[in-house]
Amino acid sequence: MSKQAKIKKAIYSGTFDPITNGHMDIIRRASNIFDEVVIAIAKSKSKQPMFSHDKRVELVKVATKDMENIKVIGFNTLLVDLASKLEIHTIIRGLRAVSDFEFELQMGYANASINKNIDTIYLMPTLENAFVSSTIVREIIRFKGKYTHLIPKEVNECI
User: Fold this and answer.
1) Phi, psi (5° rounding) for residue 13?
2) What are φ and ψ of residue 89, in 5° steps?
3) Full-model pTM
4) Is 20 a residue whose pLDDT tops 70?
5) What DSSP line would sit under 82-107, residue for residue?
6) Phi and psi of 121, rounded to 5°?
7) CA-based angle 83:36:154, to the nearest 5?
């Protein structure tokens, strides 16, 4: 395959517990940059997710169903190993605030130390979505507050 015909692929991972409008913002931006974006939902038992792994995969599939260049998978390995297996060399990460940057920078360096062929690209959500996180949404859900404006409409119907 010539360099011109090469498909540009990226992977965007997380627990997506649940997927939020902030995640969707990053997914849309990534889908405009890359030919294919794999959304990889981590099993992540250590985070004690509110929703099961299967449910989180289902919610992301529902939220991205109209996006042609998005593929959704679940995983339970190191992200760099999954990326290598899928022949993906770019990891997408979202940054909401300075506090995110320090952690994400360390993860990017750790991933690069494991696989030198992996690059990490950091995307920022719009200002409207900068405060939205799964943690905030889960807290609002737990206390039966109003959260529907923070997650995709299609996901609201599934929760």
Assistant:
1) -115, 160
2) -115, 5
3) 0.91
4) yes
5) HHHHTT--EEEEE--SHHHHHHHHHH
6) -115, 130
7) 105
Spell 107-126 as b/e; 16+ CB within 10 A means b: ebeebeeeeeebebeebbbe
- Encoded tokens for 96: 């909401």
Q: Kindly state the tokens that stand for 19.
A: 């997927």
- The two tokens of residue 49 are 């997710």
Q: For residues 39 and 101, what is the distance between their CA atoms, to the nearest angstrom? A: 20
User: What's the Rg (C-alpha) of the chain?
Assistant: 15
Find the length of the chain.
159
Fold exhibited by the domain 9-156: Rossmann fold (3.40.50)
| Contacts of residue 113, Cβ cutoff 8 Å, sequence gap at least 6 | none
User: Catalytic amino acids?
Assistant: 23, 47, 96, 134
How buried is 35 (Cβ within 10 angstroms: 0-12 exposed, 13-18 middle, 19+ buried)?
exposed
On average, the pLDDT of the chain sits at 92
The helix (H) or strand (E) run that includes residue 134 is helix 134-142
